[in-house]
Amino acid sequence: MEKELLVVIFGLEHFNYYNYGRNITEETDQKPLLGVSKTPYHSISPRLQRMLLRLNKYNVNLIYVPGKQLIIDDTLSRVQLNDQIFNHDVYESTAELCLSATASPSRWEELAKLTKDDPELDDVVYRIKNGWPDKINTRKYAF
Protein backbone atom coordinates (compact mmCIF):
# COMPACT_ATOMS: atom_id res chain seq x y z
CA MET A 1 0.00 0.00 0.00
CA GLU A 2 2.81 2.42 0.86
CA LYS A 3 4.56 1.71 -2.43
CA GLU A 4 1.36 2.43 -4.34
CA LEU A 5 0.97 5.73 -2.49
CA LEU A 6 4.61 6.59 -3.23
CA VAL A 7 4.00 5.88 -6.92
CA VAL A 8 1.03 8.26 -6.91
CA ILE A 9 3.03 10.96 -5.12
CA PHE A 10 6.06 10.53 -7.38
CA GLY A 11 3.90 10.80 -10.50
CA LEU A 12 2.13 13.91 -9.24
CA GLU A 13 5.34 15.62 -8.16
CA HIS A 14 7.20 14.64 -11.31
CA PHE A 15 4.45 16.14 -13.49
CA ASN A 16 3.72 18.98 -11.06
CA TYR A 17 3.64 21.53 -13.88
CA TYR A 18 0.68 19.74 -15.44
CA ASN A 19 -1.06 18.52 -12.27
CA TYR A 20 -0.97 21.44 -9.86
CA GLY A 21 -4.31 23.21 -9.55
CA ARG A 22 -6.23 20.65 -11.61
CA ASN A 23 -8.72 18.02 -10.57
CA ILE A 24 -7.01 14.65 -10.97
CA THR A 25 -8.56 11.21 -10.81
CA GLU A 26 -6.06 8.52 -9.87
CA GLU A 27 -7.02 4.90 -10.41
CA THR A 28 -5.56 2.38 -7.98
CA ASP A 29 -5.98 -1.32 -7.43
CA GLN A 30 -5.19 -0.90 -3.71
CA LYS A 31 -8.53 -0.62 -1.93
CA PRO A 32 -6.94 0.07 1.50
CA LEU A 33 -5.35 3.18 0.01
CA LEU A 34 -8.80 4.76 -0.28
CA GLY A 35 -9.47 4.22 3.41
CA VAL A 36 -6.10 5.56 4.51
CA SER A 37 -6.52 8.71 2.44
CA LYS A 38 -9.75 9.50 4.30
CA THR A 39 -8.50 8.55 7.79
CA PRO A 40 -7.70 11.33 10.28
CA TYR A 41 -3.95 11.96 10.48
CA HIS A 42 -3.65 11.29 14.21
CA SER A 43 -4.70 7.66 13.74
CA ILE A 44 -2.14 6.67 11.07
CA SER A 45 1.62 6.17 11.18
CA PRO A 46 3.95 9.18 10.87
CA ARG A 47 5.31 7.87 7.57
CA LEU A 48 1.82 7.76 6.03
CA GLN A 49 1.09 11.18 7.52
CA ARG A 50 4.08 12.64 5.68
CA MET A 51 3.01 10.97 2.44
CA LEU A 52 -0.54 12.25 2.74
CA LEU A 53 0.71 15.76 3.48
CA ARG A 54 2.68 15.65 0.22
CA LEU A 55 -0.48 14.43 -1.53
CA ASN A 56 -2.61 17.25 -0.09
CA LYS A 57 -1.07 19.83 -2.47
CA TYR A 58 -3.03 18.27 -5.30
CA ASN A 59 -6.75 17.92 -5.95
CA VAL A 60 -6.63 14.14 -6.21
CA ASN A 61 -9.61 11.84 -6.25
CA LEU A 62 -8.51 8.25 -5.64
CA ILE A 63 -10.83 5.61 -7.07
CA TYR A 64 -10.60 1.85 -6.83
CA VAL A 65 -10.33 -0.12 -10.06
CA PRO A 66 -9.75 -3.89 -9.89
CA GLY A 67 -6.28 -4.92 -11.02
CA LYS A 68 -7.66 -6.87 -13.99
CA GLN A 69 -8.97 -3.63 -15.47
CA LEU A 70 -5.64 -1.80 -15.11
CA ILE A 71 -4.18 -3.51 -18.16
CA ILE A 72 -1.17 -1.33 -18.92
CA ASP A 73 -0.08 -0.76 -15.31
CA ASP A 74 -0.16 -4.42 -14.39
CA THR A 75 1.38 -5.61 -17.64
CA LEU A 76 4.34 -3.26 -17.41
CA SER A 77 4.94 -3.98 -13.72
CA ARG A 78 4.90 -7.74 -14.28
CA VAL A 79 7.22 -7.92 -17.28
CA GLN A 80 10.26 -9.91 -16.21
CA LEU A 81 13.41 -9.62 -18.23
CA ASN A 82 16.73 -11.33 -17.83
CA ASP A 83 19.23 -8.49 -17.53
CA GLN A 84 21.92 -10.51 -19.28
CA ILE A 85 19.82 -11.08 -22.39
CA PHE A 86 18.57 -7.99 -24.19
CA ASN A 87 15.45 -9.12 -26.00
CA HIS A 88 14.19 -6.51 -28.48
CA ASP A 89 11.00 -8.48 -29.11
CA VAL A 90 9.88 -8.09 -25.49
CA TYR A 91 10.45 -4.34 -25.57
CA GLU A 92 8.70 -4.00 -28.92
CA SER A 93 5.71 -6.06 -27.79
CA THR A 94 5.45 -4.02 -24.58
CA ALA A 95 5.51 -0.79 -26.59
CA GLU A 96 2.93 -2.17 -29.02
CA LEU A 97 0.71 -3.17 -26.10
CA CYS A 98 0.89 0.34 -24.67
CA LEU A 99 0.11 1.92 -28.02
CA SER A 100 -2.74 -0.41 -28.89
CA ALA A 101 -4.31 -0.19 -25.45
CA THR A 102 -4.32 3.59 -25.28
CA ALA A 103 -5.87 4.62 -28.59
CA SER A 104 -8.00 3.16 -31.34
CA PRO A 105 -6.71 3.00 -34.93
CA SER A 106 -9.02 5.84 -35.94
CA ARG A 107 -7.61 7.96 -33.12
CA TRP A 108 -4.03 7.23 -34.31
CA GLU A 109 -5.02 8.27 -37.84
CA GLU A 110 -6.50 11.47 -36.47
CA LEU A 111 -3.33 12.17 -34.46
CA ALA A 112 -1.14 11.48 -37.51
CA LYS A 113 -3.22 13.89 -39.60
CA LEU A 114 -3.13 16.59 -36.92
CA THR A 115 0.63 16.13 -36.57
CA LYS A 116 1.06 16.44 -40.32
CA ASP A 117 -1.06 19.62 -40.32
CA ASP A 118 0.96 21.19 -37.48
CA PRO A 119 4.15 22.69 -39.00
CA GLU A 120 6.18 22.42 -35.77
CA LEU A 121 5.28 18.78 -35.10
CA ASP A 122 5.78 17.92 -38.74
CA ASP A 123 9.25 19.46 -38.53
CA VAL A 124 10.00 17.45 -35.37
CA VAL A 125 9.02 14.22 -37.15
CA TYR A 126 11.17 15.23 -40.13
CA ARG A 127 14.18 15.96 -37.87
CA ILE A 128 13.80 12.63 -36.07
CA LYS A 129 13.77 10.74 -39.36
CA ASN A 130 16.44 12.76 -41.21
CA GLY A 131 18.66 14.18 -38.48
CA TRP A 132 19.46 17.69 -37.36
CA PRO A 133 20.93 20.10 -39.96
CA ASP A 134 24.49 21.44 -39.70
CA LYS A 135 23.26 25.03 -39.50
CA ILE A 136 19.94 26.11 -38.07
CA ASN A 137 17.93 29.29 -38.02
CA THR A 138 18.03 30.19 -34.30
CA ARG A 139 14.93 32.33 -34.60
CA LYS A 140 12.93 29.40 -35.93
CA TYR A 141 14.24 26.91 -33.35
CA ALA A 142 14.14 28.66 -30.01
CA PHE A 143 14.40 25.38 -28.14
UniProtKB/TrEMBL annotation:
GO molecular function: endonuclease activity; hydrolase activity; RNA-directed DNA polymerase activity
Keywords from the named record: Endonuclease, Hydrolase, Nuclease, Nucleotidyltransferase, RNA-directed DNA polymerase, Transferase
The keyword Transport appears for this protein: no
SUPFAM superfamilies in the cross-refs: DNA/RNA polymerases
Residues annotated as transmembrane: none
Record-annotated Reverse transcriptase RNase H-like domain positions: 2-58
Name of the protein in its database record: Reverse transcriptase RNase H-like domain-containing protein
Organism: Araneus ventricosus
